[in-house]
Design brief:
Chain lengths: 137, 139
């Protein structure tokens, strides 16, 4: 069975799903992530689904479950990179992904996690000086 | 055509494990591309196939999936048959209701799959297994 790798970047766990997951692989990812959240104390989980060409009800439910589990373990989950055709299909299928935060890409996902933790800027995660502030809307 | 696979003939896949559901998705994708479905329609039919192949595995106890490139004289399409000899479905209308499940899922498999395709046909009776046929036409 394939296993999806989980990378730790600062205070965030990054999961980039690159394979067409079997249901078992999806369930294993759920369990691996819960363990890594507790082991690392990370406060953010970003799940990148850019490479997924479908999200069916099983994977949709897995994403919702991961979001709920991480919330209970004091971490925010953001799903990023959903393809337009996948979004259209998900809605027609009847899945609304309630309770899941989404962002268009990993960078925006990191900003969202940082904002959720009360940081103004995700750059505060690294030690280098902040770049010049950009105008905020 | 890719890798010498003759897509004018039905492609078959037995469904007996999780990995077989993944294989069904890949097979459906290949035929959907050959039938010139748009990207959105490919995504819809592969998603519907994933739901129905999982039903074949989980509720039907395994079975077979057959994928065929079809043509109605005006446009090409893809037809997929999911067959199992499991317990069958006693109340099809109920099984096609959003949110109804006997398996602990979300209850969107059958009903959601039906919304994603152009034609949906289900043949089942208690003890007689289940046979679902779906068709998606190129637009």
């Amino acid at each position: 069975m394939d296993r999806v790798p989980i990378l730790k970047i600062g205070d965030i766990l990054l999961v980039s799903i690159q394979v067409d997951m079997s249901d078992q692989t999806a369930v294993a990812l759920q369990e691996d992530l819960a363990e890594r959240i507790v082991a690392t104390g990370c406060h953010g989980v970003i799940i990148d689904i850019t490479a997924l060409d479908i999200v069916d009800s099983f994977v949709g439910r897995m994403l919702s479950t991961i979001a709920s589990i991480s919330r209970v373990l004091d971490a925010e989950t953001v799903v990023v990179g959903m393809r337009p055709a996948v979004a259209i299909t998900l809605v027609e299928l009847g899945l609304s992904l309630n309770g899941i935060r989404t962002a268009l890409n990993v960078e925006r996902g990191m900003e969202l996690v940082a904002a959720g933790r009360g940081y103004d800027d995700y750059d505060e995660f690294d030690d280098g000086p902040d770049p010049a502030p950009t105008a905020s809307p | 055509m890719t890798s010498g696979v003759d897509l004018s003939r039905p492609q078959q896949q037995t469904v007996g494990s999780d990995e077989d559901v993944v294989r069904v998705r890949q097979m459906v994708r290949t035929v959907a591309v050959a039938a010139r479905l748009s990207l959105v329609d490919q995504t819809k039919v592969v998603t519907a196939a994933s739901e129905l192949a999982r039903n074949t595995l989980v509720y039907g106890g395994g079975g077979t999936v057959e994928v065929t490139a079809v043509d109605n004289g005006r446009k090409p399409g893809i037809r997929i048959v999911f067959a199992d000899s499991g317990p069958g479905i006693a109340d099809v209308d109920l099984a096609l209701t959003d949110g109804y499940t006997t398996g602990g899922g979300l209850g969107l498999g059958l009903s959601g799959a039906r919304r994603l395709v152009d034609e949906f046909d289900i043949l089942t009776a208690p003890g007689q297994g289940t046979r679902v046929t779906i068709t998606k036409w190129s637009r």
